Amino acid sequence: MYPEPTPHVPxxxxxxxHQPTPYPPAVPVLAPLAPVQPxxxxxxxxxxxxxxxxxxxxxxxxxxxxxxxxxxAVSRTAVNLALGGVGxxxxxxxxxxxxxxxxxxxxxxxxxxxxxxVIFGGWIAVQIFSANxxxxxxxxxxxxxxxxxxxxxx
Length: 154
What we know:
Helix content: 40-55%
Order of helices and strands: EEHH
Radius of gyration: 52 Å
Strand order of the largest sheet: 1-2
Shape: flat
């Protein structure tokens, strides 16, 4: 059913070993510091104002503004979608927390009602089954009440 196993001879390949070549450490060459005269003296400009005065001074090149930063590679739509997704997840998480809080509050109120019923029921049971026959309440003689009622209606 299955073919007979045949021995396989491993293939031998030539191996090249590459050794890294270290770079010599860079040694900074320090030039002696000496005051140097500028190569050319800047041109002096003179301007005659409308009232006849003459203003003389060096020409100043206007400051070049910094180049504008390149626009990011991510589009505004993609950023808005990502922020919307984060907001949606935050709302979902808040709703889950609200649901959990509501369920816990409901269970807590149910337990309080049950505890009150057990305590009140126990108090009633003690009043009914107490052996001392406490006489402090209003006692109604049912037999006389029935008779009075029968006489009242007849």
